[in-house]
């Protein structure tokens, strides 16, 4: 079993949210901090993916602006 260094921090969350996290941890036989770590990792990954999607959409919009007439001809 590998040991991951941990750092304590203090924050606040809605009581219902914390209760749901505790319920998930209990139902899966896991520790609360393990479920919290997973939730944080998922959130960070999701934010990373959103930035990539925004980049793609921006490039696509730019392409439409530049090549609109070509795309219309190709669609005929």
In words, what does this structure look like?
By secondary structure, this protein is an all-alpha fold. The chain has one domain. Helices cover 76% and strands 0% of the residues. The protein contains two helices and no strands. It has helices spanning 15-28, 32-75. Helix 1 (15-28) crosses helix 2 (32-75). The longest helix has 44 residues, at 32-75. It is elongated, with a radius of gyration of 22 Å. The mean pLDDT is 88.
Oligomeric form = single chain
Q: What overall form do the CA principal axes indicate?
A: elongated
Radius of gyration: 22 Å
Structure class: mainly alpha
- Taken as a percent bin, the fraction of beta residues is under 5%
User: Could you give a short account of the major beta sheet?
Assistant: none
- Indicate the percent of residues in helices: over 70%
Give the tally of structural domains: 1
Note the total helix count: 2
Q: Would you identify the regions where 5 or more consecutive residues have pLDDT less than 50?
A: none
**Helix-strand sequence:** HH
Give the N-terminus to C-terminus distance in angstroms: 62 Å
Keywords:
76 residues, single chain, mainly alpha
Summary of the model, kept short:
With 76 residues, this protein is mainly α. Helix content is 76%, strand content 0%.
List the helices and strands and how they pair.
Elements: H1 15-28, H2 32-75
Helix pairs in contact: 1-2
């Amino acid at each position: 079993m590998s040991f991951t260094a941990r750092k304590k921090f203090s924050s606040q969350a809605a009581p219902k949210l914390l209760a749901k996290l505790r319920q998930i941890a209990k139902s899966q036989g896991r520790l609360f901090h393990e479920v919290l770590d997973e939730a944080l990792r998922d959130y960070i990954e999701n934010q990373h993916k959103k930035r990539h999607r925004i980049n793609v959409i921006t490039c696509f919009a730019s392409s439409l602006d530049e090549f609109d007439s070509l795309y219309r001809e190709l669609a005929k």
